[in-house]
Amino acid sequence: MAVQPKVLHYINGQFMEGAAGAYFDNINPFTNEPINEVAEGRKEDIDAAVRAAKEAFDHGPWRTMPVEKRLRYLFRIAELIETYADDIAYLEALDTGIPISQAKKQAARAAENFRFYAEMVKTRLVGEAYHVNGQFLNYTVYKPVGVAGLITPWNTPFMLETWKVAPALATGNTVVLKPAEWSPLTANKLAEIIDEAGLPRGVFNVVHGFGETAGAALVAHPDVRLISFTGETTTGMEIIRNSAATLKKTSMELGGKSPLIVFADADLERALDAAVWGMFSLNGERCTANSRLLLEQSIYDEFVARLKERVDRIVIGDPMNPATELGPLIHRDHWERVNRYIDIAKQEGADVYAPSVPTGLEKGNFVPPTLLLGCHNGMRVAQEEIFGPVMAVMSFADEEEAIRLANDVKYGLAAYVWTNDMKRGHRVAQAIESGMAWVNSPNVRDLRIPFGGTKYSGIGREGGHYSFDFYTEVQVVHVAVGDPPIPAFGKGEKPTALSAEQA
Ligand code: NAD
């Protein structure tokens, strides 16, 4: 498929270059050669996009049209995503290095995001009513908030963008999306799809560009009422600080360092499958990756031996090859960062085990699947998010120690527990400080459940009806159905004026 030479902003229903006419190169992670050029958004472009979105919110038909009609647009977007699923997967693999077989699954999930939120709005965006002492009826209504600023990362960008765009639009908001600068292609494809679906002008806008300029301008804009952010914890902190001046609602989906705990009584083969897939799929660039593997002492040697066998056989290669399991990392800068962590692991005394990258792949940002064996929680590599195919492995003596080690980290996104003692499975899952936990299961999500983290992994939950808390304002209307007493001020005798002396 031919890729457009220029990726433009999409503002008020039109593809356009930025006000300053500036562009930056978009680089192929497999070859490190430019793919194309991307319009570099600045404050003026954010201002134009927010103006269009505010106009569409205040005066357009989007939030006021019959909900059935609005939702038909969402179903149409889902259909079009399916129509273009192969193109989307191709663009995602080209842009990010995610193997094509995995990119296809992400595209399917993106279509599901739109269909799911259309159905949720119809069935679950419901208010409550309270009869109060026969005197009042109090009822709640959910209203769209206004212009939603959505800021997304470069890992699985299409899926994560649609995960925010779908509930924001379904609930009647208008949107300005600022995609990550390293992965602009599928955001542009989403704009094309939404354009083809015929949404009213200004309802959906995309401004490309860097975080410090385009992203920061979106966060600072007084007409943007909420910011949904997915990305690094430190960026999230800065966004919260910067959005304080305009008192925005923020939702924060941040980093992770999630434990996968294997007890000796677990189904070890399935635990192994889950540990390897959960760490090395999506090139290890996955927020919920089980980047800390905690093994009960008695199975440590056997499990590690089997892990090494698996890691040796992971197919590293061209992301466009359907057989590839592990592709190149998104960008040279990120490749350097991940390699720095592997060096730190060596300095910290971890035993680093990794197969070599096959010859012929030297131009790409390849890091082989890497095990950091013999880790302990005092090491940086056991505490900090590496966000590549690198797993810290450590042992524990008993349940109490497993829980303590699992929680001894600043993050709290996901956790995985493997044991055939189900009482222990529940107990350990509930004892771990994480937004989500899986017992004897790989990371499989139903869209109805809340997604998000605790501690440094985020604030708030998205997913299911939980997204409505964020993308809507709840208003209560108090109606008197009887004649409740009203204190009657000003109905008594007119007071005589006090003389200055009496006062
Ligand atoms: P990042 O924080 O560097 O960038 C994310 C987005 O924020 C980009 O669009 C970037 O341009 C923008 N940005 C950067 N500085 C900004 C600023 N000052 N103001 C406004 N916007 C700004 O993250 P990344 O490297 O793109 O993504 C990887 C990170 O995302 C990892 O930490 C990963 O764990 C996290 N992540 C979390 C989840 C989750 O749901 N919890 C999901 C996916 C990724």
From TrEMBL:
Q: Does the keyword Transmembrane apply?
A: no
GO term, biological process aspect, one: 4-hydroxyphenylacetate catabolic process
Q: Which Pfam families match?
A: Aldedh
GO MF, one term, reads:
5-carboxymethyl-2-hydroxymuconic-semialdehyde dehydrogenase activity
What InterPro entries does the record tag this protein with? Ald_DH/histidinol_DH, Ald_DH_C, Ald_DH_CS_CYS, Ald_DH_CS_GLU, Ald_DH_N, Aldehyde_DH_dom, DH_HpaE
Keyword annotations: NAD, Oxidoreductase
Asked if the record carries the keyword Oxidoreductase, the reply is yes
The family note in this entry says:
Belongs to the aldehyde dehydrogenase family.
Record-given protein name: 5-carboxymethyl-2-hydroxymuconate semialdehyde dehydrogenase
